[in-house]
Amino acid sequence: MEERGFIFQDKVDREIRIEPTDWMPEDYRKTLIRQISQHAHSEIVGMLPEANWITRAPSLRRKAALLAKVQDEAGHGLYLYSAAETLGVSRDELYDQLHTGKAKYSSIFNYPTLTWADIGAIGWLVDGAAIMNQVPLCRASYGPYARAMVRICKEESFHQRQGFEIMLTLCRGTEAQKRLAQDALNRWWWPTLMMFGPRDDDSPHSAQSMRWRIKRFSNDELRQKFVDITVEQATYLGLTVPDRDLRFDTETGHYRTGEIDWSEFKAVISGNGPCNRQRLEARVKAWEDGAWVREAAEAHAHKLKKKVAI
Ligand code: FAQ
């Protein structure tokens, strides 16, 4: 057992990918199921805030792009559920964990999309944060997860640009449009910073996940990279980041933010954010409304099997 553990860690250290049929420590398997399934749920629940604006997109071009983005997210969820299944958990179990409120998904999707500018802010900030966190995951030690992330990141990068372009259009528009863009930044800035997870000294899983090379950077490192890039993009847009304590530290070359409201983060991840109940209800309803499709598909597969047997 010890020797297997040693060989496993040695492979990880030498950047040899771990594949589903390889031996792996039970805790590594559990950690991956936890992270990959939370990630899959996030993609699926993440469709809801944006779907709210598909029927109200301001032009056909915007509607087509938003529809395509939301479809991509469904695809991301499916690749990720498939990656989780390679670790021996069934998709039904994962859905059940989501629908019964046992599973976490990203805190960010528990905030409402009040105006069209929120769709711009989600693409720019939320997808921007997702890319920052997910590009290193393309080098995660577990093969199926890393490979799924490659395609996901390419698509997220398109999503981020469509969001930034919406923001740019609004910021170059009328005063009222610019106000919408600023209001969206005001509401999405802090929740986006929370997406990276708790501070390093309050993150129970980080150290082990870094030893296993599932994570390559800590939560705070990724958050800092995101802040450094995004503050400059906000300046380019002519928007103000809603943080009075934000300053550029000439010594380190980084922007320093004020303190994140961790009590808000904790409330949201324990089910008490502005839209948690609404999001879960929508997922459970979709599952229940789809029961007849699953039954019909099963009956059809059963018929086909019978035919082949004859
Ligand atoms: N929300 O010890 P750590 C997207 C939980 S996809 C909710 O630091 P870890 C695409 C954490 O699970 C966005 N819970 O944990 C899109 C753990 O709880 P547990 C999703 C959070 O795993 C864009 C506890 O706190 N991306 O946006 C959050 O080492 C636009 C302790 O935390 C991923 O899932 C949070 N923000 O690091 C779709 C990426 N943060 O399990 C639609 C993959 C932490 O003990 C529209 N995941 N928690 O009960 C990761 O990189 C990691 O799992 C972290 C957390 C960095 C999220």
Structure write-up:
It is built from 13 helices and two strands, in the order ααααααααααββααα. The protein has 310 residues and is mainly α. The protein has a two-stranded antiparallel sheet with strand order 1-2. The radius of gyration is 21 Å and the shape is globular. The chain binds Phenylacetyl coenzyme A (FAQ). Residues 34-35, 38-39, 42-43, 46, 73, 104, 106-107, 122, 126-127, 130, 133, 194-198, 203-206, 209, 219, 269 line the site of Phenylacetyl coenzyme A.
Short note summarizing the structure:
With 310 residues, the chain is mainly α. 67% of the residues lie in helices and 2% in strands.
Outline the fold blueprint.
Elements: H1 2-13, H2 26-45, H3 47-51, H4 60-85, H5 91-99, H6 117-134, H7 143-171, H8 175-194, H9 206-211, H10 219-237, E1 247-249, E2 254-256, H11 262-272, H12 276-289, H13 291-309
Helix pairs in contact: 2-4, 4-7, 6-7, 6-8, 6-10
The structure holds Phenylacetyl coenzyme A (FAQ).
